[in-house]
Amino acid sequence: MTGAPFDPSRTALLIVDLQNDFLHPEGAYARGGQANADIAALPDRVLPVAEALRRAGGWIVSTQFTLVPGKGGQPFISPHLKRLRPFLGQGDFAPGAWGHALVDPLQPADITVEKVAYSAFYMTRMEWVLRKAGIDTLILCGIVTNGGVASTLRDAHVRDFSLYLLTDGCAAFSREVHETSIRDLSTIAEPVTCADMEIEIGVAGKRPPS
Fold this sequence. Notes:
The chain is 37% helix and 18% strand. By secondary structure, the protein is an alpha/beta fold. It has a six-stranded parallel β-sheet with strand order 3-2-1-4-5-6, sandwiched between helices. The chain is globular and about 55 Å long. The two termini are 20 Å apart. 43% of the residues are buried.
C-alpha cells in the first residue's frame, strides 16, 4: 500500500449491499436464478478485514438496498431495475425483513443505511452519520463493482473522503466487468487486497494517536 497512514478510529469498512436477498441460497436473487459464485464468496474474504478493523477501534457500516413497500406491500421498483430483474416482487429487500439484512458472517454493523439507488449517498443519511461518527476514511467492498460500489465510491470521492477499494472484496456478475471497474476506480481510490488491508489495519492500530 502506498496511501497515507490512517487512523482506524476514523475509518469505516463500508459494506455495499452484502444482503441475504443478494447472496443467500434462499434469497431473492437465488430464487430468481441469479446466484453468482464470485459474489457468494465475498463475506468470507471480507470478514478478516472487518474483524481487524473492529479490534483496531474502527467502524463497520452496511448499506442495505431497499425496495420500499407501497400500498398493499407492493414495492416501488424503478423501471430499469424491473427490466433487469423482473423476478423481484413483494417482500424482496423489504425494510426489516430477513432478506434485507446484512449477511450473518459480517454482523453486526455499527451503522446501517438504507438506500434506494446505486449510490449509498443518494437521498440517504450516509454522509450525515459518517461526519457525526468522525469518519474520514472509507474502505469499500461489496456488490456490484460496476454498480453500487462504483457509484458510492465516486460520491464519497467528491465529498473528500480518503478511499481504499478492496479489489478481491468486490464482485460483479462478470469477472471482466469487475476487473475493468477496478482499473477505472483506481484513479480515485487506492486498490488493495483484503489480505494487505488486514495487515495495514494491524499496523495502523499500533501507531500512537496523532
